[in-house]
Write a structure and sequence with these properties.
The structure holds two protein chains of two kinds.
Chain A (H helix, E strand, L loop, with lengths): L1 H28 L13 H10 L6 H15 L13 H36 L4 H15 L2 H15 L13 H31 L2 H8 L4 H39 L5 H9 L3 H29 L6
Helix pairs in contact in A: 1-11, 4-5, 4-7, 4-9, 4-11, 5-7, 6-7, 7-9, 9-10, 9-11, 10-11
Chain B lengths: L1 H17 L21 E6 L14 H10 L4 E3 L5 E3 L2 E6 L4 E6 L13 H11 L10 H5 L5 H5 L10 E5 L2 E5 L7 H4 L10 H7 L15 E7 L3 E6 L13 E6 L3 H9 L5 E3 L5 H7 L4 E14 L9 H10 L2 H9 L4 E2 L17 H4 L2 H14 L9 E7 L2 H18 L2 E7 L1 H9 L5 E7 L6 H4 L16 H11 L5 H14 L2 E13 L3 E2 L16 E2 L3
The chains are: A mainly alpha, B alpha+beta.
């Protein structure tokens, strides 16, 4: 296992470097720059700006300065757009927000999704099954940018129970809507995966054997069926969690939580090179880490898997 | 005479302020309205502001926040008139050398007095190559002596045309007479900044806790992309006349979501999404407001490429746009059909009644057909072109309507093309287009802020209009004490050459809760000062 983790980290570093370089060149190939504005900035002013942000140097040199500063000083540079802030500042203020409601979205999606899936499988071909499947399908076909306004309409405008956005330091009423809007489509996927995998397990030989032995049904489900049925779900969770963090682009922008996701889109639109790079590196690292964690959990759940 | 007049006006204003009777706390001292117990104003901002540093900030929302946190030499009142700020009075004999006399009771929020040196420091800082502020151009626009040399690093900041004669007297030297210079020092770039705080905290000086300002409010909370809170500054020299205790900015990117949150009672003020004004106005007439803005909307023709190097083609397309349809049926927000580049409300200048603006639309259409036929286009040889705009629902609607008018009236085939903002700006400034959308909001309330856009040497001149006569008139206008005659000629010349087709002049369209009073609806520049706002009891 230890060797496995080491090997994965050894692969992760070049992967990140490639990601950073490709993003860097892609970014510079987009027309315009961070200081493109409706006002033509006088040449003298533009020269001063370019010198300050190293934009007067060739791209490969900017890239190496950028990577060097990260490696030696963990300095991701100043934001080009929010000039009083540096990128680390933005990430430090935004990431905890996204992580908080991302975590609750995850709990919501896994908790309800797994329960729905299990119920549907146990009550196969009954009204309960059909209801659970319908809920899953509705959740799946409603993208979060449709889900969010619907939730706002119901809980903010009609019922008046919850605020329509903001964060306020993460009070519970500000977390609920973003978490549900973000988690719903994942909930639906988890429910469907759980249901089909549970059905497969329930129809397998060893469960039939256990039943024939006369073990109580509830014991069979808890002891023998649930764990193997969770395998496909677990392998889905790693990408799902990262998907939630990146999917927060829309949620952050709609609910203006101040989370990290909005920097992704604003960074790209403003050509805020430093911010896009910072967020890309963060999300890249997260993706790699979570995939590795899932592999480890996998080995723990399924004794047949050895690395 | 001018000097005397200004000093008198300033004296009168301060006298009338000093003479205001102090009433009970819960009524407005002037109107006598019953005030609400809680004086908190919450509004929507489209985006996080670029900076809270007066010398760096570039966006409208950010400038408003900076106006609350700092105060410049002069302010504008709710009608847009210039009134004293840190400067009690000011004088000039030739519009080229200006002297500002600072009040002695102005204080920074840490208790230090505001002195002329704070302005000198700030102005030098704005052009300092090391700060590299994107708004340093504003200082060139002000025509301060030696500004360009300082920007280019050829001269020291100390040679900039601004000096402190003593702690309370500021002398400004310009390279040319500028009759509207007093307007220019109401802008955020010219606000003072606290040298000792900036030197202590460096780039972090604008964070809550560090920031020291001299405005009516102090910064108490700032979460990027979520909220910014500022509260009453007890040390502000005119604190007694400020009725507002707290102002909250909420960043909400989506305008429909902002309207939802307004409906849910979370906001006191928000913008009305394009096309929704009539519905909102019918439903809530006391909350939906529309008022003129100092902004224009136009289509630029690329004057350098065929077929738009032919004035007849440019005029034909400009004439064929039925501006009343665009304004009344497409936008529905009380905008004004435009036949001149400069909005009619621009101060100190009456826009001329250019001939084509006086015709009926039928006459314009008729003339458009003739011109296009003269230029060699007709049913057998239809004009094919493309219309470029930046991605936005309202721009798309206007572009569809206009291209349909061209098609129907002139048989012109215009393909629509949209690009994301930064890409659009790059394409347009590189001249890689045939027709492109343009819009401009005045930097100050004077016609040159619009008319300068059509000078051949100007970097703003995306139409690539090149007229010697126009350039001559513009250069001459800079040194005239009353340049209106030249501005009129420039507008007439533009109507003749039609480098751009003016489409409409903007309005501001906002929702404001009925208990919020003091909004400067009459200020076409919308320079908002929160200390002029208050809430009445309901």
């Amino acid at each position: 296992m230890f060797n496995f983790v080491l090997r994965r980290i050894a692969v992760a570093i070049p992967t990140l470097l490639i990601l950073v370089s490709v993003s860097f060149f892609l970014m510079f190939s987009a027309p315009g720059g961070p200081f493109t504005s409706e006002r033509p900035i006088p040449a003298a002013v533009m020269e001063n700006i370019n010198a300050k942000y190293n934009l007067d140097k060739p791209v490969y040199q900017q890239l190496s300065i950028y990577i060097w500063n990260i490696v030696t000083e963990f300095d991701f540079g100043p934001s080009f757009r929010y000039q009083d802030r540096d990128v680390l500042d933005l990430i430090q203020s935004g990431f905890p927000v996204t992580l908080t409601y991302g975590f609750w979205a995850f709990v919501f999606a896994v908790g309800i999704g797994v329960s729905l899936g299990v119920i549907a499988a146990l009550k196969h071909n009954t009204a309960a099954d059909y209801t659970a499947v319908s809920v899953a399908i509705v959740g799946q076909v409603l993208p979060n940018f449709v889900m969010a306004p619907i939730l706002v309409l119901i809980f903010v405008l009609w019922l008046g129970w919850l605020p329509g956005g903001g964060w306020q330091g993460g009070q519970i009423e500000y977390i609920i809507l973003p978490a549900i809007a973000l988690g719903t489509s994942f909930l639906a996927s988890i429910a469907r995966i759980t249901r089909s995998s549970m059905l497969e397990v329930l129809n397998s030989n060893y469960i039939r054997t256990a039943r024939a032995k006369g073990l109580p049904f509830r014991y069979i489900i808890w002891r023998h069926a649930l764990k193997p049925a969770m395998l496909p779900v677990v392998s889905y969770l790693g990408p799902a969690f990262v998907g939630m963090i990146t999917g927060s682009v829309i949620i952050d922008s709609y609910f203006t939580t101040g989370g990290i996701g909005v920097h992704f889109i604003n960074g790209a639109l403003n050509r805020d090179y430093a911010v896009i790079m910072g967020v890309t590196i963060l999300l890249g690292t997260l993706t790699i880490t979570f995939n590795m964690l899932v592999d480890i959990i996998y080995a723990w759940i399924d004794p047949k898997i050895r690395y | 005479m001018k000097t005397l007049h200004k000093t008198l006006a300033a004296a009168l204003v301060s006298a009338s302020l000093a003479g205001t009777p102090v009433l009970a706390e819960d009524t407005h001292p002037v109107t006598g309205e019953q005030l609400a117990d809680e004086q908190v104003f919450t509004y929507r901002a489209l985006d996080e502001s670029s900076s809270l540093d007066p010398q760096v900030v570039e966006d409208v929302d950010g400038s408003y926040i900076v106006r609350d946190l700092f105060e410049g030499l002069l302010n504008s009142d709710p009608e847009g008139n210039i009134v004293p700020g840190v400067a009690e009075r000011w004088e000039t004999d030739d519009n080229q050398t200006w002297t500002f006399y600072l009040r002695d009771d102005a204080k920074w929020s840490d208790g230090e007095p505001v002195t002329a040196n704070d302005f000198v420091y700030a102005w030098r800082r704005a052009v300092d190559p090391e700060l590299a502020s994107p708004y340093a151009w504003y200082m060139s626009l002000m025509a301060l002596e030696n500004v360009d040399a300082v920007l280019e690093g050829e001269m020291e900041g100390s040679e900039l045309g601004v000096e402190a004669l003593d702690d309370h007297t500021l002398r400004v030297n310009l390279t040319r007479p500028m009759p509207y210079f007093d307007q220019m020092v109401t802008h955020a770039t010219t606000f003072p900044s606290p040298q000792w705080v900036i030197e202590e905290h460096g780039d972090d000086w604008t964070k809550p806790g560090n920031l020291v300002g001299n405005g009516a409010f102090v910064l108490t909370e700032h979460v990027i992309n979520e909220r910014l809170v500022r509260e009453r500054n007890e040390l502000y020299w005119d604190n007694d006349s400020n009725l507002m205790d707290k102002v909250v900015t909420l960043v909400i990117n989506d305008e429909n979501q902002a309207l939802n949150r307004y409906d849910a009672g979370e906001l006191d003020k928000t913008d009305i999404p394009a096309g929704q004004y009539p519905a909102q106005e019918a439903e809530r007439p006391d909350e939906a407001h529309v008022f003129p803005r100092l902004c224009n909307y136009y289509y630029s023709f690329n004057n350098e490429v065929a077929p738009f190097d032919d004035a007849r083609v440019r005029k034909a397309l400009a004439y064929a746009i039925d501006r009343n349809v665009v304004v009344d049926n497409v936008l529905q927000g009380g905008q004004f059909p435009a036949y001149t580049f400069t909005p009619a409300l621009t101060a100190g200048f009456t826009t001329p009644d250019v001939a084509w603006g006086q015709w009926t639309q039928a006459e314009r259409d008729e003339r458009a057909r003739e011109l296009l036929a003269e230029a060699g286009y007709g049913p057998d040889n239809p004009l094919r072109t493309s219309l470029l705009y930046n991605t936005d629902e309202a721009h798309r609607k206007v572009a569809i309507a206009v291209s349909a008018m061209w098609k129907q009236k002139l048989g012109v085939e215009a393909t629509l093309e949209n690009q994301e903002w930064t890409t659009f700006l790059t394409t347009r400034s590189e001249g890689d287009y045939e027709i492109a959308r343009g819009a401009w909001c005045g930097d100050y309330n004077e016609a040159s802020t619009f008319l300068d856009l059509m000078q051949s040497g100007s970097g703003y001149n995306d139409a690539n209009y090149d007229s010697e006569e126009y350039d001559r008139l513009a250069a001459e206008a800079q040194t005239m004490s009353d340049p209106s005659a030249n501005y009129t000629k420039m507008e007439e010349l533009a109507a003749e050459d039609m480098p751009n087709a003016p489409v409409y002049h903007y309005t501001g369209i906002i929702m404001v809760k009925p208990d919020l009073k003091g909004w400067p609806y009459e200020d076409v520049q919308q320079n908002i000062y929160s200390r002029n706002l208050y809430k009445v009891a309901q």
